[in-house]
Amino acid sequence: MTTGYLVEDEQKIVGDMELDVTEAKEFKERENQTTVIEFIFLGFSNHPDLQGLFFLLFLIIYLVTILGNTLILAAIRVNPVLHTPMYYFLSNLSFLDICYGTTTLPVILVNFFRENKTISYEGCLSQVFFLVTFAGCECVLLAVMAYDRFVAICHPLRYPVLMSKRVCAYLVTGAWLCGLANSLPHTGLIATLTFCGPNQISHFLCDIPLFLKLSCSDTSANEVGLYVSSATIGLIPCLFTAMSYILIISAILKIRSAQGRQKAFSTCASHLTVVVIYYGTINFNYDRPSSGYSLDVDMLASVLFCIVTPMLNPIIYSLRNKEVKNTLKKLFEGFVSSYGSRI
What is the pTM of this model? Predict the structure, then answer.
């Protein structure tokens, strides 16, 4: 009887020891999964001798982006002639481009002076949230602007009713809500992932695919979310924009006079140029094979999409639009005369 009790006690002790070892392993795994508190950018690490040149280039791009889009906003605000739906949407696009540049470029510029080009986990997650929000909003906003041009050219008599101030406000609000609705699920799903290391990002910004590569947990839900997002917030506005311009071009070709066709096309030429550049760069950035491209090519794709495009938009609209150019000219002349009088 005594021997039986001793055997049971020994088995209990051994079981408790095995349980302690299992709990220790689980605790160690949980500890390892929460050790990643920051990420290291490897972007531009292949060109250490060009850091100063890169800093100057990106600083110029950022300043041009902020200045150009701010001038567009100022021109639309001060000139009553530009208080129309088309320029109302353009002002929102300019504000969106300022947000785009501010989300990425300040971090990039600061990291040029840092030996360890790091970003906190929260900062990286925030960058993903804002980038995805702005990308989704811009897709819908470009579709809204295409619809505005479609109504103006194909249904000019009904334009004041179809594009009233209330309708325009609803459309812009819907674009921003679509961006948020696109971003919140992605950010929430990423927040549930665990990162056990490594913490090196082969890029100069945070993006969803880069997060998924670093995660040590199941990312199937995130991948499904990306497919759903591409099919809805990406593809549907693109198809809507394409269909709008098919109808617009068809209507323009029916105009008999060459002067009338040129005038009708000039009203949507700037927006069409922006659409082509935007979707061209976004396809080059995302719709490529995941392998077979160097780090430099990946970074070039992101530079074109996230950094260069917001800088080009105000240049395109100011160069191809006489009303915007005239307003900007008056603003410049007024600034020069005011500054000269103070001196």
Answer: 0.82
